[in-house]
Design brief:
It is globular, with a radius of gyration of 18 Å. It has two domains: about 1-115, Orthogonal Bundle (Cytochrome Bc1 Complex, Chain D, domain 2); about 130-244, Cytochrome c-like domain (Cytochrome Bc1 Complex, Chain D, domain 2, Orthogonal Bundle), CATH 1.10.760. The chain has about 240 residues and is mostly helical. Helices cover about 45% and strands about 0% of the residues. Mean pLDDT is about 85; it is low at about 1-30. One of its GO terms (cellular component) is periplasmic space.
Length: about 240
Amino acid sequence: MAEVAKPLAALLLCCACAASAQAPGNAPANADAIPAFSKLDSIEARVQGCVTCHGQQGQGTANGYFPRIAGKPAGYLYNQLIGFRDGTRSYPPMNYLVAYLPDAYLKEMAGHFAALRPAFQAPEAAPANPALAERGHVLATVGDAAKGIPACIACHGKSLSGMEPGIPGLAGLRSAYIVAQLTRWRVGERRAAEPDCMKRIATRLSDTDIAAVAGWLARQTPPAGASPEPSNVVRMPVACGSQR
């Protein structure tokens, strides 16, 4: 518990600083403008609340509890920060951290992590169940037409590095994190702009499917310096509101 409490305490301290600096009575007239006080420090100082959990370069944690955010499309990261700020995505530490930050500040934070390319952690080990591994491979690379499930690579890219402007890379994520997010999409705890493509896909995945595809994705070795692919909505098998 002590090890968990330390980063959480540091993050909440940053939350308190952000809240104090931009309390409603002190809010800038232009909500899109970065507050003047923040221009006096570096971007590295401004993202200390982020790196406390996600790592100094946004590389994520080895156990996958805090995901890799480095190298994700800036548009995707910005959308998530807006979601946390406005309450459409729920995780209390993140909700508190960005509660008082204006759009321009969040865009700058998103751009900072989108530009980083730290080394990836070693992939997870292969499972003992060959059938589960094969099911994961099929879902990720081919999909399941009978269940209306497109291949992961159709949208997230052949190298799983994502697609501009709003589709995240899956490379380097741990299976536990992927399982948790797919489950949240399926039960409605996580949402995106309509048409919410991930909601539709996740509701068609069984528990076994989720475990299989998460395990396969976490075992892939990402290419060094992987960057998101250019936007290509024509290629996408389903319409996604996040790509508008």
